[in-house]
Amino acid sequence: MVPFSFAGRDFLALGSGALFWPARGALLVADLHFEKASWYARGGQMLPPYDSLATLADLTALAETLRPREIWCLGDSFHDDEGCDRLPDAAQARLRALTGAIAWTWITGNHDAGMVDRCGGVVVDEAELDGLILRHEAVPDEVRPELSGHFHPKLRLRVRGRSVSRRCFVASACKLILPAFGALTGGLDAAHPEIVRAVGRGAEALIPVEDRLLRFPLAA
User: Fold this and answer.
1) pLDDT band at 78 (very low <50, low <70, confident <90, very high)
2) Per-residue pLDDT tens over the stretch 51-65
3) How many CA atoms lie within 13 A of 26 on its CB side?
4) CB 178 within 8 A of CB 29
């Protein structure tokens, strides 16, 4: 966990892509995409059906370590509106245990906007939390400080002749995009024009590494 400041608040960035807000005891994650594999399987593309359990195991481990009072999921928590119904019994039991023990808020995303039952918790379109706007997709002309997901940012570099890809946060003066937390999620290059358009000038890709935060400026 690496400390850093955004919009005058102190956070801890995790290599997993999660963000912890100590002052509130809040854990924030984006783009879990539960049951993505089973969604693809319905269309005939068979993937290992363990993505939800793997993501839940990682999320449970964080909850046990950090003991958050709140968990905020910044959209696309399920890969489609029926994702909660398709969760295996063991995964659904684990998720309901988490949502029953912690103040849990699901923010709607483009994949799961119409889902009603999310295995517990409260569902909102977006939220304002101590002056920060929490939503799924960044709004380019939003002037208030904003936390979002949606783009699954990854930084791609050439290191010693090899291509290296790492999930990353993307930050500008008033916007912070979280990487995807889900086990079965791809990623969009952090320097992609759509990400740069969303966050504006002066953006950086941030990668937590042990006890420091690596910063990579992104072209405007």
Assistant:
1) confident
2) 788 899 999 999 999
3) 18
4) yes
CA 154 to chain centre: 12
Report whether 129 contacts 162 (CB < 8 A).
Answer: no
Q: Which of 150, 144, 143, 149 is nearest to 130 (CA)?
A: 144
- Give φ, ψ of 15 to 5 degrees: -60, -20
Provide the strand spans (E) within 14-145: 19-21, 26-29, 70-74, 103-107, 122-124, 127-129, 132-134
The H-or-E segment that residue 198 falls in is: helix 193-199
The DSSP symbol for 131 reads: T
Max CA pair span of the chain: 49
Whole-model pTM: value is 0.90
Tokens of residue 113, six digits: 């906007």
Burial of 52 (0-12, 13-18, 19+ CB in 10 A): buried
